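TL;DR need structure tokens for one chain.
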Amino acid sequence: MNTVSEAINKRRSIRSYQSKPVSRDIVEAIINDGNEALSAMNSKPWRFVVVENEEVKKKLLRASLPHAKKILETVKESDPARYEAITKRLNELPDPVYYSAPVIVFVIGTGRYASHSCPLACENMMLAAYSMGIGSCWVGFGSMVTADDEVKRILELKEEEMIFGPILLGYAEIYHERPIKREPLVKWV
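>> reply
TL;DR here they are.
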């Protein structure tokens, strides 16, 4: 298996991190790899905000948690098992959104190509992190901070910008085995 395929197949979403900090050199290398992602018309419609400050992390959690709980209610009827698992996590963990990760990287995009391009930067970053021995996780609930004016100020979030990510980075405390994946649905013509 080549190194790219290995990273794709072995990378896991990490939701339990050691308190050990990630060096700035490593974070910058991961961001540089994100910046190398393909983008529509080579637009590179993204920018990155790195959060390491514990007080800012608490503000992010306070801003995102109510929205996460509200969205969770929408799956209560349709997927009770998922609802139960996520509710348990929300109630038991001190940080059920960002998982106390040492580093949170917000990928922020703007313009007509952002929705197609920014997710590619996120994926590059997570694969790069794996290749450097760093755990990562994309957290959708973590992007639900845009109703909080203080958080918008901290992120310097402009009206026309969207958050793609955030991507959590840190050394894995727990590394799970590969879950069972369904076979790809392919039609050959």
